[in-house]
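Database export, one record per block. Field names are fixed; values are copied verbatim from the stored entry.
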Amino acid sequence: MTIAKPGPRSEAKSARLTIGTRGSPLALVQAREVEARLVRAHPALAEPGAIELAIIRTSGDAAERPLAELGGKGLFTKEIEEALLDKRIDLAVHSIKDMPGFLPDGLVLACVLPREDPRDVFIGVCAENLKSLPRGAIVGTSSPRRQAQVLALRPDLVIQPLRGNVETRLRKIREGAVDATLLALAGLRRLGLEQEASTIIPTEEILP
């Protein structure tokens, strides 16, 4: 969770507390988890209208080319950081894996939710794990980390970029766009989709 350092509120804001978030289902689940924890800690925020979610579309959401070619992690945070600095939102909830290494002046990383299981999962239509994929099978992932580790284990496989939110990637798997993909177990659990995983990958095989 990122917040701006104290300062005057924007006159455009009506809620007592405005939480900024991307609009993907996973981002909204995580923002609502923070909202629920804030309400438990501060019961006055349970009043109707006390908290609102502000959905912010980022450059990363709109990008069509691979993110590594366009600037990487900051593409998912730039517009959210601007909203914080402009006092249009009070705090932002974001997956820490997509956070840049340094925050702009005036912003602080205030807290981190309890960590979920950090492991990746394998999801395939013709195999239960990476080892059993046929030669030349297509693995869809846009993550440089996953690409490097998959090819280190199976240099005979073909990597194809695969973008979109979790549900979009699962749909592309079902439609046969690729033979397999790797996703974060934490995201599947938070969305109630853990059953979609073919195999949870041990950390000795793929480092999260």
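Remark 1: The first strand starts at residue 2 and ends at 4.
Remark 2: The beta strands are 2-4, 17-21, 51-55, 91-92, 107-109, 120-124, 138-140, 158-160, 180-184, 199-200.
End of record.
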